[in-house]
């Protein structure tokens, strides 16, 4: 039996304590709530300092999460005071400094867009994000035994043909920029967490993901972003929005379907069913430009 700070540890938690023993003397382990692909742990050492352990696991493999890529993105962003430093990059996971603060309760779109633009100005990570490839990777991990598999394949095949020539720009993107991944801190203002999907990508696609995560109108937010940042190609961007919305929803569909396949939680199945039905209707109406 493994006990830390009076708490009995699970097998996986005890394994993390042992793995990090050469670096840290861990006194407390607490699972962090939320996160489909994370399943992270909050660790506390003998001096009371906190850390986050982000494991490499079956879930991260299924979702094509690369902790080496995440380590690079965290290193870049932390140098510009946008997140905490990564400390240890191990084949079994990533150890990151804990950010003390609280999740914002108010959706201040202008403030978030300014923060997103700061992120977009960072040096590019090496990894490139390509939505069609991401879709192929997700789909290849789906079980053909799913009752929705034939419908999913039909949507997948159509979405793989969507024209995603893009804006022609490549910036540092987060691709999961929701309130749930922001921490308000007294020293550094808003900090960003969970860089597991971050990569070099199209800024407009990052904006679409941002809007989907926060239930915002894409066209309005895109125009606000262009005005805030003197972006002069907003008409070109506006023409790309419908296809980018389809791509975003297509990837979300496969993400939720994989989540249901992995954990069997009804909330993931319900979201997958809803998005699948919506996408089928939109694709049948011929809104995608091929």
From TrEMBL:
GO terms for biological process: phosphatidylethanolamine biosynthetic process. It comes from the Bacteria. Residues 28-219 form the Aminoglycoside phosphotransferase domain. One of its GO terms (molecular function) is ethanolamine kinase activity. One of its GO terms (cellular component) is cytoplasm. It comes from Veronia nyctiphanis. This is Aminoglycoside phosphotransferase domain-containing protein. It holds the Pfam family APH. The lineage of its organism: Bacteria, Pseudomonadati, Pseudomonadota, Gammaproteobacteria, Vibrionales.
């Amino acid at each position: 039996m493994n006990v830390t700070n009076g708490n009995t540890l699970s097998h996986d938690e005890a394994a993390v304590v042992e793995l990090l023993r050469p670096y840290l003397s861990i006194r407390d382990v607490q699972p962090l709530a939320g996160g489909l692909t994370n399943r992270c742990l909050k660790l506390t050492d003998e001096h009371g300092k906190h850390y986050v352990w982000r494991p490499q696991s079956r879930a991260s493999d299924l979702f094509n999460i690369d902790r080496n890529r995440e380590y690079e993105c965290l290193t870049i962003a932390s140098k510009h005071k946008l997140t905490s430093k990564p400390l240890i990059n191990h084949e079994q996971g990533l150890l990151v400094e804990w950010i003390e603060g609280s999740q914002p309760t108010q959706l201040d779109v202008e403030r978030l867009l300014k923060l997103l633009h700061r992120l977009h100005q960072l040096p590019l990570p090496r990894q490139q994000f390509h939505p069609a490839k991401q879709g192929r990777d997700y789909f290849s991990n789906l079980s053909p035994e799913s009752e929705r598999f034939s419908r999913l394949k039909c949507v997948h095949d159509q979405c793989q043909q969507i024209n995603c020539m893009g804006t022609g720009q490549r910036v540092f993107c987060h691709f999961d920029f929701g309130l749930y991944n922001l921490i308000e801190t007294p020293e550094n203002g808003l900090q960003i967490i969970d860089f597991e999907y971050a990569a070099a990508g199209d800024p407009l696609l990052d904006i679409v993901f941002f809007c989907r995560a926060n239930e915002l109108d894409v066209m309005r937010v895109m125009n606000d972003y262009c005005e805030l940042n003197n972006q002069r190609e907003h008409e070109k961007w506006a023409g790309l929005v419908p296809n980018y919305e389809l791509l975003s929803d297509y990837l979300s569909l496969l993400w939720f379907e994989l989540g249901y396949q992995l954990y069997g939680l009804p909330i993931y199945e319900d979201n997958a069913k809803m998005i699948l039905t919506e996408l089928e209707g939109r694709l049948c109406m011929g809104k995608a430009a091929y």
